[in-house]
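Forgive a beginner's question, but would it be possible to get any protein sequence you like and the tokens describing how it folds?
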Amino acid sequence: MVLKCLECDKLLSSIEMAEFHSTKTSHDQFEETEEEIKKRSPEELKQAIEALREKAKEKKEKERILALEEKKTNYKILQKSNDETAQAMRKMQDQARLRDLQKIRQQKAEDAEQRKKILAEIERDKKRRAAERENKNSSVKETAAPIKQPKNANSSSTCTRTPPTSGRFSIRHDGQVCNITIAAEETLRQLAQQVAEKMNVSPPTKFTTTFPRASYGTDVFDKPVNQLDLFPSAVLIPQW
């Protein structure tokens, strides 16, 4: 049986060859024919094989060039993506460093302001204490009366200073200032309770002073404040 492709007039020796031809060319119009398939001479077969080889070679070269172009295109896309990613990473890192720098500057400014306030409070305390001493000395001089003693008699006079009956403490926390006065016999634990009530926080478990640097923990919380070296007044920073 010989089949003829009505679309390209090619003669095919079997149904299988027609199916193969249809797969390669998408031709689907065939009919039986009485024409005979002309047998090729050895030279024609050789030329046909050589032509097929050339076509296969050309096809392979085209595929290689297309693959190379595709590879170049993919590389450019990847390189561009990597450059954009690296640029985005650098931008994010720069922004993070800028935020850290701003935080450091803000913290330094807050520390300087806090130190300024503490120094000012210490200076006010010094002036207040000096004024209290001056007032007490003036009162003693005004109320002291001379005592006459007989001749040749031993005489002595003493002047005692009345210790403070209360302590005045300036509490500094989170930008807030709270002044609290408690009796000399009251304890740091009672002071901590007042800090919690007035500043709306939990009772602190430790107090520190900046000038001079000292800390007072729970081991001294039950001692009267007049037995501690922060009495009669101090600037305290609560801690938890």
